[in-house]
Amino acid sequence: MSVRWDLFSSRRRLSLSEFSQGIDTYESLVEKFNANKIIPPENLEVLFKSLRENKNKDQKKTDSKTPAPPKKTRARRSSPAKKSEPAKKQKTSSSSPAKKKYFRKVVKKDE
Known about the structure:
mainly alpha, 4 helices, 39% helix, 4% strand
């Protein structure tokens, strides 16, 4: 059972240019329609010619364009404030031992 092109294209969301991508001749396009069991539109030959003309114009436009210059990256902004340095350990007095002993102050009550 064959399906009409307008129904097929609306279901698959395809345009004729997308369907005929990679095809160079009208006969091969008709073969592709027959292989997929699709009834082609009545004005297929006219549409195919206009697609080929547009494709040739697009190729000429892209060939004549010069390549774009490479993009420049912005330099990273440095912060105005200085970065903090880690805190330095203070040396204890030489008379005290290396490790301090726990000392609890005892308050005497008057009796």
